[in-house]
Specification:
single chain, binds adenosine-5'-triphosphate, 9 strands, 227 residues, alpha/beta, four-stranded antiparallel β-sheet
Length: 227
Amino acid sequence: MTAIIDIQQLEFAWPGSAPVVQLEQLQLQPGEHLFIQGPSGSGKSTLLNLIGGVLTGFSGEIKLDGQSLAKLSARQRDRFRADNMGVLFQQFNLLPYLNLVDNVCLPCTLSKQRRAAAVERSGSVKNEAKRLLERLQLPPEQYQNRSVAQLSIGQQQRVAAARALMGAPTLLIADEPTSALDAQARDVFMQLLLEELQQGATTLLLVSHDATLAGYFSRTLSLEGQN
Ligand SMILES: Nc1ncnc2c1ncn2[C@@H]1O[C@H](COP(=O)(O)OP(=O)(O)OP(=O)(O)O)[C@@H](O)[C@H]1O
């Protein structure tokens, strides 16, 4: 079986600084979930950005589903990401002029593969967006006349989660996805996220300061702080 993530001898330094990410090896199989923890500044977001192909200029190798993103052209890299990756970052990047459902449908406008998976699951892309919003406790009929800009931060975070899950990506990368949620909302969110990931056999990489989230994961990677 091809690993979804296969990292060998990875090292990355910002210009003029000591290496911030040094990882001898890391492998994640399809459907595995990894929790990445470490103090502020230990390189958690940098590692996610390297794996997501947003940051280049590293030494060593990062393969996603057998594919080295660094060897692809920018266009091929964008295509690979659109087809295979859901991202849930601290900046939600929701489009304020679109309603909730249309925001959640976005990954399917960029990827035929994701569109096909959504249609297979729910009959249409819109139906799948509505199902995910409903699952994340944002019933679309209740919110249909609202712009995402009129939602609370916790609600926006859940719209972004539904969008990341759309079309069952191979890999979901999440950076502090529960930062805007209280303890109870966080537990409900994690439960739902993991259930949805399981159905799509999606591999998860999740970064958080919140060590209590480790309980949801079978594997943890601890990055050590430099400061
Ligand atoms: N664009 C950049 N240019 C130069 N240095 C950077 C840049 N982004 C991050 N760094 C540095 O890299 C180190 C790791 O940052 P990173 O954001 O990956 O840490 P983190 O573990 O995610 O932190 P936090 O938990 O506070 O979000 C820090 O020392 C930071 O100052």
